[in-house]
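#help-structures
NK: newbie question, is this the right format to request a structure? protein is 9313_t:CDS:1
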Amino acid sequence: ASAVDCDLPEAIIWQVIVQEVAGRCISSMKSSSAKILRQCHVDWMISCNNPTPLEFFRFIQPTHKSRAFEKYRKTLEQAINFCEDSNKQLKLRNLRETVNYNSDWELWLVEKKARSIRDEVHETNVKVHQELNTLVRNGGRQKQNNENADDEE
């Protein structure tokens, strides 16, 4: 687990995990990578200054509400059990009692939608610029062709 940087998004962590366990059989690869990922989640929760469900959702990028809630609960319990710092452990215990999963999930969905819209706008802008560049290039050639035709006359 030490080779995995827990500040990275989960998709990148998975890429690192797959690279680390390459060459092992598929069944052991799945169990090993799952253990490494769980440990990374626990490490993240212990080291995070604000390990709320919203921050956790930002970290793991979940797609299903019930699984996200369950993963947060399990990770929080493991973090409480493994945390050696009594102040941090107390903070995690208090968090367990006061978290509002539903409001954090709703905020996560709003952020996710905004990110999706931003990505679509960016993609559209890239396509518009590509088309504009193509028109400028082709327009320049068209203008040169017209000038050459005028010179021949």
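mod (FA): yep, format's fine, and the tokens are attached above. The two ends are 76 Å apart (CA to CA).
NK: thank you!
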